[in-house]
Amino acid sequence: MSTSTPLEVWLRGPVAGVPPLLQPVAHALLQARDELTAAMQNFPPELVNERPAGVASVGFHLQHLAGVLDRLLTYARQETLTAQQFAAFNAEVPPLVVAKDTVEKLVQDFSNTVDKAMTQLKATDEATLTEVRGVGRAQVPSTHLGLLFHAAEHTTRHLGQLLVTAQWVRNK
After folding, report:
1. Residues 51-61: pLDDT tens digits?
2. Topology (CATH) of 19-41+54-171
3. Which residues, listed in sequence order, are joined to residue 133 by a DSSP beta bridge?
């Protein structure tokens, strides 16, 4: 690896203030932010709603990344979703209304949500990680750790889909 290429987040060492058991969650979310920011630089806004072969658009993934992370963090705190969170969820339905700064705004929204996640992770008591947490209106049982891990896993899954779709629509 060249010295100009930064190490992946997980190789940079512990994230200050994040409990040891939650380091993988922090690393995954910070890595997702780095990769999303790099991939979306100069992304043409006119391609945001393209759906090659019917896959989800870059715009959907951009909205969903911040929204679902926020919702999962809410459940991890044992809180219910707000009217604003429900409105954001309902707005994730494509197509996205695109303005000149749409991509930058959505990337910044995700970055802000990652910042909130880092604050939440730093405040998390590891002793609570096996406690039951309810998910959704039905309060399907998970654990505190399960929700935090899923937040990271779900984020990386959608980031991967976004990266492939973005590359495809840029090069068609």
Report:
1. 999 999 999 99
2. Four Helix Bundle (Hemerythrin (Met), subunit A) (1.20.120)
3. 142
- The first and second tokens of residue 80, run together, are 């219910």
d(CA 120, CA 65): 17
pLDDT tens profile 126-149: 999 999 999 999 999 999 999 999
Q: What is the DSSP string of the chain?
A: --TTSPPPGGGS-PPTTS-GGGHHHHHHHHHHHHHHHHHTTT--GGGTT--GGGPPPHHHHHHHHHHHHHHHHHHHTT-PPPHHHHHHHHTTSSSPP--TTHHHHHHHHHHHHHHHHHHHHHT--GGGTTSEEEETTTTEEEEHHHHHHHHHHHHHHHHHHHHHHHHHHHH-
Regarding pTM above 0.90, the answer is yes
Maximum separation of any 2 CA atoms in the chain, in Å: 50
**Domain locations along the chain:** 19-41+54-171
Which of 38, 60, 68, 78 has the alpha carbon at shortest distance from 153?
A: 68
Contact 95, 59 (CB under 8 A): yes
